[in-house]
Amino acid sequence: MSYKSIEKRKTPIFLYGLTIFLAAVLFVSMFFPDSKIPLDRLRRDWLGAKEQGATTEEMEKLCTKNLVPPQPQESHHDDFAMMVQKAATDDKRVILTEVNEAFAAPNSMLDLFLESFHNGEDNITHHLDHLIIVAMDKKAFEKCKSVHHYCYLHEDLGSDLSSENLFMSKPYIDLVWTKVRLWQLILEQGYSFLFTDIDVMWFRDPFRHISLYADLTIATDRFFGNPEDHGNNPNTGMVYATPTRKNIEVIKYWIEARQRFPTTNEQTVYDNIKYELASKFNLKIQYVSTEYWGNFCQLHKDFTKLSTFHPCCVIGLKMKIAQIKNMTEEWKMYKSNNLKS
Predict the structure, then answer these.
(1) Is 5 in a helix, a strand, or coil?
(2) Residue 75 has pLDDT above 70, yes or no
(3) What is the C-alpha to C-alpha distance for residues 48 and 52, in angstroms, rounded to an integer?
């Protein structure tokens, strides 16, 4: 047999092998989207390595996926740090929300929020074991302790944050900025967090929509189809982050940017600096579709897809409560019909 005839036989075998390999990768990416090697994640990681931003040396410090060791905290935050340790999952993750007196009143948002876990699917009640509720005043703290086991009183506040605060008023702005500082404290302790506003109703496990490739995962008011597009309108009512050096520096930069926009809330500041964050820190951000983390700004009522629902774009506490109660009844009806069918 000649050398040329052997070569002719080897070539098809190589091509067959390559074809099988590519088909296998395609199959995994299509049918196992949570796999560690889907094509979209490979593409994102490759593109991320090509983006311009910090220097190589800076990125080695900021982009490492190794969890940061716990950082020393100010003494008055010791109790919060201990609570984070107690509430965390085995893989060092907590869920965080905030409440004041107005939202903690009987039959108000706190009750509706906790009830939503019991009305949900995916056995999401277990997440309550890892939920920290930060009370912004003493009455909210007392109510929290009567219904939940991880309650923290945030005492070093400069404003009275107990009442329903008008959107973009100074007390409102002070209220929403407290959560960003708490995010930093959690990350510095080496823990991941999922922050959820107290008026977000949970129907299913929202962690199913968080991708491993992203540094930050953020909800949206309006979503335009691409989870990496900064043209999406962000909503910081739900935010997920892991404790990397990069994310700690991002949160610090975000807090410092408040000085440039002193009369606005943390969400608007983020919207103003999101391109800076992406460039300076090579930050990979995932914006979650409103089909999954829903709201009234871009309403989707497909209960086969919704995991959470946030009454943003509804003004006033009474109106929010009424709309949430209506949505909850529709969810219960959907579940009941599913059981019958």
Answers:
(1) helix
(2) no
(3) 9
